[in-house]
């Protein structure tokens, strides 16, 4: 029992020291821990065996020396554990590389976002340009149909509506006022001019009998209704009408109008309807030219 008590005391001391070391974080993570555990387990087995045997005679000197040696060995192992340095704290992690990667990633995201925005802006610009091109094409088409209608004497109300629907709100009156009926053709004006010119010249001769210079020549002209068919100089009605007719044959409507407007009032009266139609056509042509220039400038 004495031996058992001594050994138990040594084991208790070792276990207490071991527990203290464990709580303090000084327990090593090597094979010495396993060795000490095995030693303690062996001593516990020996103590149990001693307790189960009959009491023995008083211990001899050799037995005491054996116990002392065992206790000393245990104390040495405990001291060895206690003298070992505590586990070093983990070294700080160098995060500079990670921070650089993160910064590069953020920069890449920003760049991609800017690129996406640029693509969106370009897409909108393309869409707007496409819409503008479609609108310009519609306007040009409408204007082309108006030119054709003016040439052929056809109405062009639908074309005026297309102009207004695509941003041309200020349509020249010369076109807006004649869109429903159209304007007369150049061929129509040419065909009607000779009869209108004879009526005009007759009115001028009736108002001024000496307009042709008198004499037998003048008399026959008045009686036969003769007039000049080739352009000639002069300011008499016959000369003026000859130049106007020549201008009409050449397609110079503005010049023909200027000549007719130079006639005396009594000579203009028979030409009033022709003059109105010719003026409407002239104004429509000018309006088409103005619109063409406007669309070209835009």
Parts with pLDDT < 50 across at least 5 consecutive residues:
13-33, 55-60, 214-220
Quote the distance from N terminus to C terminus.
120 Å
Mean of residue pLDDT?
75
- Report the count of strand segments: 0
* Order of secondary-structure elements: HHHHHHHHHHHH
General form: rod-shaped
Helix proportion range:
over 70%
Over the alpha carbons, how many angstroms does the gyration radius reach? Answer: 63 Å
Helical stretch tally: 12
Major sheet: none
Q: What is the subunit organization of this protein?
A: single chain
Q: In what range is the share of β-strand residues?
A: under 5%
* Category by helix and strand content: mainly alpha
Can you offer a commentary on this structure?
By secondary structure, the chain is mostly helical. It is built from 12 helices and no strands. The protein has helices at 2-23, 31-52, 61-83, 96-152, 157-165, 173-176, 186-207, 215-224, 237-249, 253-261, 265-268, 272-297. α4 packs antiparallel against α5 (157-165), α7 packs across α12 and α9 (237-249) packs antiparallel against α10 (253-261). The longest helix is centred in the middle third of the chain and has 57 residues, at 96-152. The two termini are 120 Å apart. Residues 13-33, 55-60 and 214-220 have low confidence and may be disordered.
């Amino acid at each position: 029992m004495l031996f058992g008590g001594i050994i138990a005391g040594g084991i208790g001391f070792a276990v207490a020291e071991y527990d203290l070391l464990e709580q303090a974080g000084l327990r090593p993570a090597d094979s010495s821990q396993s060795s000490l555990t095995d030693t303690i387990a062996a001593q516990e087995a020996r103590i149990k065996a001693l307790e189960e045997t009959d009491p023995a005679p008083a211990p001899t000197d050799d037995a005491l020396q054996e116990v002392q040696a065992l206790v000393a060995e245990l104390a040495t192992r405990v001291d060895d554990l206690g003298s070992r340095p505590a586990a070093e704290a983990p070294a700080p992690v160098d995060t500079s590389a990670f921070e650089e990667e993160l910064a590069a990633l953020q920069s890449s995201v920003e760049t991609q976002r800017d690129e996406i925005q640029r693509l969106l802006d370009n897409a909108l610009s393309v869409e707007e340009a496409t819409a503008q091109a479609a609108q310009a094409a519609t306007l040009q088409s409408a204007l082309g149909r108006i030119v054709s209608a003016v040439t052929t004497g056809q109405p062009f109300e639908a074309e005026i509506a297309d102009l207004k629907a695509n941003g041309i709100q200020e349509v020249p009156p010369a076109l807006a006022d004649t869109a429903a009926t159209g304007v007369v053709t150049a061929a129509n004006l040419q065909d009607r001019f000779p009869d209108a010119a004879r009526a005009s010249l007759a009115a001028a001769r009736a108002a001024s009998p000496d307009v042709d210079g008198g004499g037998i020549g003048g008399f026959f002209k008045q009686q036969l209704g003769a007039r000049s068919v080739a352009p000639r100089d002069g300011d008499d009605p016959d000369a003026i009408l000859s130049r106007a007719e020549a201008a009409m044959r050449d397609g110079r409507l503005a010049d023909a109008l200027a000549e007719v407007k130079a006639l005396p009032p009594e000579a203009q009266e028979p030409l009033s309807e022709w003059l109105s139609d010719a003026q409407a056509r002239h104004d429509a042509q000018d309006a088409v030219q103005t619109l063409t220039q406007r669309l070209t400038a835009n």
